[in-house]
Every structure is written in structure tokens, then in C-alpha cells.
């Protein structure tokens, strides 16, 4: 199979002398790859001139729709990918994590886009910032799509998920992508990419693929671009220090070596559910993808007294692992991706040897099921134990990227934290305890050094997503050695591909620019009640100022009797007076809300279909019997939902007879479109 690159809507075949990519199973040639004939300047130009402008014209909802359709298409056609996936050394279960996990990430981002982002091209970040006494000059942050390209340099271990987890947030943010898979498993990325192109869903220039090396692509990056890398520290440094990347301050996101820990709490003695969960998860983490996972557990931290028991329990589990051709019956762990990677792991194990003793496994003395041990990257699981953890250095810095991990004994919890921190920054750590205080001490000791903490106990284990699985809605990345990058994390993930800008100006101008009204911007009074105005007709700033209504003691007592809310602040003068907040009996907050609705509602059937809820409700001043309240209702924001209706966010302010604000909130209604607009 020749792996063509996809550049400027053309497939560029590799030349005759392209590099051979060998199967992890038996060393046979699976594919040929070379990007020598790719014009990288043209690739960069195509993304900038065609892909970027087209994507940026779409709203977040339209881009989310593309992701969903793409995910559906890939789901329908994914079956063809599994056979190919075996050649990477992946078992069927490993392939599901890669292929199905990748597609699930697309679905998740499509959903974040539709549920959490506006049907717009810009994102408002936070509330208006007051900058002047008179209120005529304010500030507001917005995020806009970078006008550049995203270069995604991926690792070999997740050819599909690695591509899709980077594509999803970038495309949703409106940035075109150039995918450069690791050559060793590029045939699987290539096969999925062919499906993406065949689907014909993404606009021209939105995605391109480089099979082979990166050529001079980085010479063409600018300050509007993002390079997102997953792989080794050495390559990360090389790319980050590329002159164009450093001179242009091109955004660089790195996810790289990580010596992740699993920490067993002192309470989790053998016989407790937490001990069993720990052993099961560590064994799984060591062997899924033959340990070639950036999140795999490398350091197993247990109380000194439990080193022996942990070693025994893990050895029993690891003894059941069946290494072999992932296509053969009964095989639970496939080979490493290549003979080279196998050699690399053996070299790393040799570096760990002076600081450790072997508890389980002789990696080279295995007979893989259905395979020739000399032809594929076969390696048995290896469990080590640190002999002098405090004096050791390699166990905290050398990542053997295979089915290997080291048990490290600790004294107290602060010792456990100190040892884990010696990894100098990791993607994830797991904590196994049923003791809240142990969990707190470990979690907050480890948090500054980790991107994710996985807390496991008997209550959550049944539904836990596992130590090693990055979730689309949660941050994936870690400080220090792990690269300092942050990916995924729901809509946070779009931040890497968008520029945050502080806008300063009049409230009125900023309301028009951002589509979000704020206090101080113009208020418009239409000829008709705003509840008679359909979604497509009603405008930002349209305001209703109501008449006032006096609240009597009878109102308060009636409300208390009717609702059953006889709280002393409303019903007991002496008790209310004794309360530092109230002058005496006061109106219920809910009474104020109800009367406010009574003042602003227009009762006849009309475009307002439903009250959808309240946000940011605050009661700011008590309302005493005899006080009069009135309401200002202003259209703050509009968000289209579908062809029938949209969501109107109203700014509501309730004031008393002295023009003091007694309550503020945002009211959400669903408003129908006019028949013409629908
Ligand atoms: P590399 O850093 O060598 O490769 C990662 C990516 O960078 C690949 O796409 C590779 O392409 C590309 N690349 C390599 N050299 C260059 C270069 N000079 N210019 C541009 N791109 C380049 O990592 P490996 O995949 O070989 O893995 C090596 C080690 O890295 C592992 O043993 C493991 O320790 C660590 N690793 C860590 C991961 C993590 O997420 N924490 C994930 C994967 C690996 P090509 O394949 O074409 O060379």
C-alpha cells in the first residue's frame, strides 16, 4: 500500500524509493511512505487561503454539525479499519480505544459545539469589565478564530484517536488542519483520512494529510498558527526551537513523556475493594496497547508495608497475560509497534536495572502465540521494584514505553507526594483510597504536577472511565516533563486555536459588536410589548419598564400560607429583627420574583413559548411591607435554536420606590420565529 499525502485536494503518491513501514506482527511490509513530492508551501497556502476563510464563515453550530456528520460517516465505515489496526500491534480492544474512541471524541465535540457555544463566530469570555465612573466606557473579552493553520504532529500509538482528538477542537474553532501522523502507523491514519475525504463533508482546505516527514512545513508557520505535538521530549524540543516557531511565537502545544503514577492509600489494605481495584487497573494500564500509552502507569506507589503484597497480586494478574499475534484466539496483548520500539524499551529497562529488581517477567523469554518472536515487537510484561526509591533517579525520569512499571514503596503520605513529584510533571495520577483525608492530602499535593487526577474507590469504580482514558470533556495534558500543553477539556480545548482580545468602548458599541447587551447600552422601547415580538423581530436592548406594585403584609402572609413557606424572616417580626440582614418582616424572594412576572408578563398567546429558567439570580435588598417594586426587562442576548424558535436572554432588574435595586437576574424564554422567518 502506497501512502499518498493529501495536499491541496490532490493525492500525492510517494516516490518509488519510499520508506517501508513494517507490520508489528511479523515485520512484513504494510505500506510505503514518503512526502518528498509534497509542496509544503502550497499545503500551507491552501489551508490559509481556502480552508481557513471557509471554516471561519461558518458558525460554531454549523461546524459542530460537520463534526457530527463526519462522526456518523466514520461510524458507518469504520469496520474496514480494524484489520489494518492489527498491524500496529493492537488487539481488537486496543483498536476500539483508538478508532471508536476517536470517533466518540468527534461526537462529543459536536455536542459541546451545539450545547455550549453560541450559533455565532465569536465567543464572549466573561462579564463586562467596568472602566469608568459614569459607565460610558467598559471592557469585554472576546475570542476569535486564529487566521492561520494548525499543524498536528502525532504519535504512533493512537493513529486514529490522536488525529481526531486534535482535529475536533481545531475545526470547531474554525482553524484548518494539516495532519502529520507518525510514519510507523501512518497507514491506519491514512485509511481513516481517506474515509474523511470520501465523506465529502468537510469544506475544501479544512484538512490535509502528510504521510512521511514534515518537510519544510514549519518554515511556513506564522504567529497565527498552532503546532500541536505528541511524542518524545527530544522531538518536541526540536520543533519548539524551530526558528519560524520561536521567531513568530507560533503557539506550540506539547504532550510528551510522562511517568504517570498510581498511588495506593495506606487504608487500602489487601482485602479492601480499593486494593483489588488498584491491582486490576495497574495490570490493565501496563498491558493495554502493550503499555504504549502516554497515560500508562509507570510508577506504582504503595506504602512500604504493602510492597510485597502488591508485587504478588500484580504478578498473579500479569501471569495471565497472553502475548501474541493480536489476531490469534486468546491473545490479550499484542506486540510493540516495531522491533525498534522493542529494542528501545529493552534499553530503557537496562537504564532502570541498577535502581530496581525484577518482580515479574523476563521480557525476552516469551513464546508469542501464533507468531515468531524474532519477527515482531513481542515483549512480555515486566514488573520492577525500586530498591532505594529516595536515591533513585531513573525510575522517575526514564519512560520505558512498553508493558513495564516499577513498584515504589513510600513511608507517609508526604513521602508519596514527594516521590510522585519527582516525575517533574505528568499527565495523570490515580489515587486509590476510601479515606477522604488521604484523598485530600494526596490530591492537593499532586494536583500542581498533574493535568488529571483519577480518584478511585468502591463508590465510583463501577462507572469509572479508567486511569488511562483521556475524556473529551476533561483536560488532557500535564506540566513539565509532560509537555506543559493542554488538549481537550470540552470547549476549553478551543482556546488553543482562538485569540482572546480585550475590547474597550461604549456599552452600546460593544453590545452591537458582541451581540450581548449590558447595562449602560441603549434601551429601546418598541411600540408593542416585547412579549408580542417574535424571535427574529425582537432586537437587543428592547426594554419594558413596568408600572409599580406595593407589597403589603397581607401579600406576604397570603404567599406564606399559599406556598407553605413560613420562614421566620417573613412571619415573625421579632425573629426577623434579630437577624442582621432584615429590618423586620420582609417579602419572600420568590414573592418578589412572582410579582415581577405579574408586572412584566403579557398574558395573551404570542411568540413567547416557554419560560426556560433563570440565571444569576441575586436578592440585593430586602423588600418590607409598604415598599413598591417595579421591573425593567431588557433583551440581553439572542441565540437561535432551530427553524421554529430561539432563546431570548432577558436582563431583569427589580427596583424599589427609591430606585434601589432589590433583585437582578437573567430570564430565559423560548420565542417563536414569525411564520415568514420560519
Ligand atoms: P517521536 O518524537 O520520534 O515522534 C513523534 C512525531 O514527531 C511523529 O509524527 C514523528 O514523525 C515526528 N517527528 C520526529 N522527528 C521529527 C522531526 N525532526 N521533525 C518533524 N517531526 C518529527 O516519538 P516516537 O513516536 O518515535 O516515540 C518515541 C518515544 O516518545 C516513545 O518511546 C515514548 O517514550 C515517547 N512518546 C510519548 C508519547 C506521549 O504521549 N507521552 C506518545 C508517543 C511517544 P515520524 O514518525 O515520521 O518520524
TrEMBL record:
Region (Disordered): 460-486
Residues annotated as domain MaoC-like: 541-655
Keyword Oxidoreductase carried by entry: yes
Pfam families xref list: Aldedh, MaoC_dehydratas
Record field: compositional bias (Gly residues): 475-486
Swiss-Prot/TrEMBL keywords: Oxidoreductase
Keyword Transcription regulation listed: no
GO terms of molecular function: oxidoreductase activity, acting on the aldehyde or oxo group of donors, NAD or NADP as acceptor
InterPro entries: Ald_DH/histidinol_DH, Ald_DH_C, Ald_DH_N, Aldehyde_DH_dom, HotDog_dom_sf, MaoC-like_dom, PaaN-DH
Annotated ranges, domain Aldehyde dehydrogenase: 29-443
Protein name, entry field: Phenylacetic acid degradation bifunctional protein PaaZ
Organism: Oleomonas cavernae
Gene assigned in the entry: paaZ
Amino acid at each position: 500500500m502506497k501512502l499518498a499525502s493529501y495536499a491541496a485536494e490532490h493525492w500525492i503518491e510517494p516516490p518509488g524509493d519510499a520508506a517501508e513501514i513494517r507490520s508489528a506482527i511479523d515485520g512484513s511490509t504494510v505500506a510505503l511512505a514518503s512526502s518528498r513530492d509534497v509542496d509544503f508551501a502550497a499545503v500551507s497556502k491552501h489551508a490559509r487561503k481556502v480552508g481557513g476563510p471557509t471554516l471561519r464563515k461558518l458558525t460554531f453550530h454549523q461546524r459542530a454539525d460537520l463534526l457530527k456528520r463526519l462522526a456518523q460517516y466514520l461510524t458507518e465505515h469504520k469496520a474496514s479499519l480494524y484489520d489494518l489496526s492489527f498491524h500496529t500491534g493492537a488487539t481488537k480492544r486496543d483498536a476500539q480505544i483508538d478508532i471508536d474512541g476517536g470517533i466518540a471524541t468527534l461526537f462529543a465535540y459536536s455536542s459541546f459545539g451545539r450545547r455550549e457555544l453560541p450559533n455565532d463566530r465569536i465567543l464572549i469570555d466573561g462579564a463586562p469589565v467596568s472602566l469608568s465612573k459614569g459607565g460610558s466606557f467598559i471592557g469585554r473579552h472576546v475570542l476569535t478564530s486564529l487566521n492561520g493553520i494548525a499543524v498536528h504532529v502525532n504519535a504512533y500509538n493512537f493513529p486514529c484517536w490522536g488525529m481526531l482528538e486534535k482535529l475536533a477542537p481545531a475545526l470547531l474553532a474554525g482553524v484548518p488542519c494539516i495532519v502529520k501522523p507518525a510514519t510507523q502507523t501512518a497507514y491506519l491514519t491514512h485509511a481513516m483520512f481517506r474515509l474523511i475525504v470520501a465523506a465529502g463533508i468537510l469544506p475544501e482546505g479544512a484538512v490535509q494529510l502528510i504521510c512521511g516527514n514534515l518537510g519544510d512545513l514549519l518554515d511556513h508557520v506564522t504567529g497565527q498558527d498552532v503546532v500541536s505535538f505528541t511524542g518524545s521530549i527530544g522531538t518536541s524540543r526540536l520543533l519548539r526551537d524551530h526558528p519560524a516557531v520561536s521567531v513568530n511565537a507560533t503557539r506550540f502545544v506539547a504532550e510528551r513523556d510522562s511517568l504517570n503514577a498510581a498511588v495506593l492509600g495506606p487504608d487500602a489494605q489487601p482485602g479492601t475493594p480499593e486494593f483489588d481495584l488498584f491491582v486490576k487497573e495497574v495490570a490493565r494500564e501496563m498491558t493495554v496497547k502493550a503499555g504504549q500509552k502516554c497515560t500508562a502507569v509507570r510508577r506504582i506507589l504503595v506504602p512500604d508495608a504493602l510492597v510485597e503484597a502488591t508485587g504478588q497480586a500484580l504478578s498473579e494478574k500479569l501471569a495471565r497475560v497472553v502475548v501474541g499475534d493480536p489476531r490469534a484466539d486468546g491473545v490479550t496483548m499484542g506486540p510493540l509497534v516495531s522491533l525498534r520500539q522493542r529494542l528501545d524499551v529493552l534499553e530503557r529497562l537496562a537504564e532502570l536495572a541498577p535502581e530496581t529488581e525484577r518482580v515479574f517477567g523476563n521480557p525476552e523469554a516469551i513464546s508469542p502465540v501464533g507468531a515468531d518472536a524474532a519477527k515482531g515487537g513481542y515483549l512480555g510484561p515486566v514488573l520492577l521494584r525500586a530498591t532505594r526509591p529516595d536515591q533513585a533517579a531513573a525510575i522517575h525520569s526514564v519512560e520505558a514505553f512498553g508493558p513495564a512499571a516499577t513498584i515504589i514503596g513510600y513511608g507517609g503520605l508526604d513521602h508519596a507526594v514527594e516521590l510522585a513529584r519527582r516525575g517533574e510533571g505528568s499527565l495523570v495520577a490515580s489515587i486509590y483510597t476510601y479515606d477522604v483525608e488521604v484523598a485530600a492530602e494526596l490530591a492537593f499535593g499532586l494536583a500542581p504536577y498533574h493535568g488529571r487526577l483519577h480518584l478511585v474507590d468502591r463508590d465510583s469504580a463501577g462507572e469509572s472511565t479508567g486511569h488511562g482514558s483521556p475524556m473529551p470533556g476533561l483536560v488532557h495534558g500535564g506540566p513539565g516533563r509532560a509537555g506543559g500543553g493542554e488538549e481537550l477539556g470540552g470547549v476549553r480545548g478551543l482556546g488553543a486555536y482562538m485569540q482572546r482580545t480585550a475590547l474597550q468602548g461604549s456599552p452600546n458599541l460593544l453590545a452591537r459588536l458582541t451581540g450581548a447587551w449590558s447595562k449602560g447600552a441603549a434601551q429601546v422601547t418598541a411600540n408593542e410589548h416585547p412579549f408580542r415580538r417574535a424571535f427574529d423581530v425582537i432586537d437587543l436592548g428592547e426594554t419594558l419598564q413596568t408600572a409599580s406594585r406595593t407589597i403589603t403584609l397581607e401579600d406576604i402572609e397570603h404567599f406564606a400560607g399559599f406556598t407553605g413557606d413560613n420562614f421566620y424572616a417573613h412571619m415573625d417580626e421579632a425573629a426577623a429583627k434579630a437577624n442582621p440582614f432584615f429590618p423586620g418582616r420582609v417579602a419572600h424572594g420568590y414573592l418578589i420574583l412572582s410579582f415581577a412576572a405579574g408586572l412584566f408578563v403579557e398574558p395573551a398567546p404570542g411568540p413567547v413559548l416557554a419560560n426556560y429558567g433563570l440565571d444569576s439570580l441575586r436578592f440585593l435588598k430586602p423588600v418590607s411591607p409598604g415598599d413598591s417594586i417595579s421591573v425593567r426587562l431588557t433583551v440581553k442576548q439572542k441565540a437561535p435554536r432551530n427553524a421554529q424558535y430561539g432563546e431570548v436572554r432577558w436582563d431583569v432588574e427589580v427596583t424599589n420606590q427609591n430606585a434601589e435595586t432589590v433583585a437582578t437576574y437573567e430570564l430565559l424564554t423560548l420565542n417563536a420565529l414569525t411564520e415568514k422567518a420560519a
